[in-house]
Write a sequence for this structure.
């Protein structure tokens, strides 16, 4: 009960300290959501960012905490590529406004892109907001096991 009061007094948001990886445990939040972007459709990427902002704002207005993670894999990995993302500015704005949001980039998808493009993994740049995870599908599974609600965009 004391933990809940402490987090509610921080403005309604669960703030993750800079440099903490997506896989590390974070303090309990009232609500936990994982958004899955598996499509390369820029409109769906925008929808994901809009829904993140809507959820964060709504829970803040209610004085409740929320943990939000977006996992991009497969064709959706394009969202977190610095060289091809159609929404990189919107990601930066979202991260600035909601610093607790985690953007997880599937490294299996990155490796696949490197192979298709005859590049090294290091030649596939990611947006600075991205946090690497080995496999997007595994990360989604782990989050669901931790009580996150799954939303596919």
């Amino acid at each position: 009960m004391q933990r809940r009061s402490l987090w509610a007094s921080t403005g309604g948001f669960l703030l993750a300290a800079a440099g903490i990886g997506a896989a590390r445990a974070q303090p309990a939040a009232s609500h936990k959501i994982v958004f899955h972007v598996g499509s390369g459709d820029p409109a769906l990427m925008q929808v994901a960012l809009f829904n993140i902002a809507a959820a964060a704002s709504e829970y803040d207005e209610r004085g409740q905490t929320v943990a939000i993670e977006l996992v991009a894999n497969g064709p959706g990995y394009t969202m977190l590529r610095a060289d091809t993302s159609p929404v990189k500015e919107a990601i930066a704005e979202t991260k600035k406004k909601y610093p607790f949001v985690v953007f997880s980039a599937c490294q299996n998808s990155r490796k696949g892109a490197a192979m298709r493009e005859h590049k090294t993994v290091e030649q596939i740049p990611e947006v600075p907001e991205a946090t690497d995870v080995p496999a997007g599908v595994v990360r989604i599974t782990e989050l669901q096991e931790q009580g996150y609600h799954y939303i596919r965009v």
The chain has five helices and five strands. The chain has one domain: 27-152. Residues 1-24 have pLDDT under 50 and may be disordered. Helices lie at 2-8, 42-61, 88-97, 107-116, 136-145.
